[in-house]
Amino acid sequence: NLCIQPNPQWREQFDFNQFEDIQEPLQVEVFSKRGRKGTESWGMFEVDVSRLPLNERQLYTHVLDPGKGKLVFLVTLRPCWGVSISDTDNPTLVNQDERDSVMERFSLKNTHQRLHEVGFLQVSVLKANDLPATDINGKSNPFCVIELGNCKLQTHTVNRTVNPEWNKTFTFPIKDIHDVVEVTVFDENGDRCPNLLGKIAIPLLTVQDGQQVCLLLKKEDLGRPSKGTITLVLEVIYNNVRAGVRTFQPKEKKFIEENQKFNKKILARNIYRVRKISTAVLYMLQYIKSCFQWESKQRSLIAFL
């Protein structure tokens, strides 16, 4: 939700599964939020996915309702597998048949098949505890966003609590085993931008399969601790050979990036760095010059030798 911006830029990417037996169009709708509950539709349209060429990015510019502007977005039809949301009562890997199917898909004997698929990640977001309160009544309206590369999914919002229980399971296709799972907890803030309550980052290679972990939330820069904890269960299945081959390929560019804003502190720090380097270079030049002018016979003799 981008607030009070005449030309919003979301720059977010979402993956959807298209099943062969259900040929539904892609529906795109733009909303304007009015407070916590009210929303106003500014236009809805459909994209016939069956007519899209494979692996070619298509640019769409759709005119919204009169006076509401235009929406510009990209759609790409490509092989994709493994994106889903479910309740923790029935996650994908709990069913033995589905687990066997995933294990078979990424077994070493099937390495030559589907070379672009490195692995499979399942994340169960159970709950959070002792989150910061953002309302006057000492409560928050938290929801959780899970990101892996360019794939992004989120939970529902639990209103008026600092100890939410989401109990949702998410699955993602792994494209690079060196990727990092980012889990961010936000406070829904009506028609204003959501407040960040805390964040964690977990490298895929450090995941302990099937173990419930309770992690301390950190600030947005991941350098300082925040308030509260989040409880997760993660499981990673991947093909070692495909993961190794993918390591030698360029890292996928992350589409979701923040706008770089002008910052006085950064400018002052860069000016100080340039000044410090310039001073060091000037001092070195003066030192070399002094060696040629024999200001110190011992130093000049050593320099010439």
TrEMBL record:
UniProt domain C2: residue ranges: 1-62, 100-217
UniProt keyword terms in alphabetical order: Calcium, Metal-binding
Superkingdom of source: Eukaryota
InterPro entries attached to this UniProt entry: C2_dom, C2_domain_sf
Transmembrane spans: none
Homology family: Belongs to the MCTP family.
PANTHER family in alphabetical order: C2 DOMAIN-CONTAINING PROTEIN, MULTIPLE C2 AND TRANSMEMBRANE DOMAIN-CONTAINING PROTEIN 2
Protein's UniProt name: C2 domain-containing protein
Originating species: Ameca splendens
